[in-house]
Design a protein that fits this description.
about 130 residues, about 0% helix
Amino acid sequence: QVQLVESGGGLVQAGDSLRLSCAASGRTFSRIVMGWFRQVPGKEREFVSVISWSGYSTYYADSVKGRFTISRDNAKNTAYLQMNSLEPDDTSVYYCVAVWGRIPSTIAKSAAYDYWGQGTQVTVSS
């Protein structure tokens, strides 16, 4: 089992930055693929980004590419999502996700990930 706890959400203005953290506990963190999804009430969960267990491979949704950066520190069992140039459309609950092994071929499918955090709210005002 893997437990994920997100932190770092908050209320910011458009153009500001935030860094989300996801602390993992349980089994060996270094062999876990980590990622982020987000969800607005009434809408489906949306893929944001994913990073391989080595950190060498990363993928992003087109909507955040060039503004968000995913990273991880295996020594601290923590993954991060650095969010720059935030826009009101980025307002959402952000969920940390994880799955063992390789990055799923269906990276944007929520069902591809076995573990989910409780979510952290990010609100961007215009």
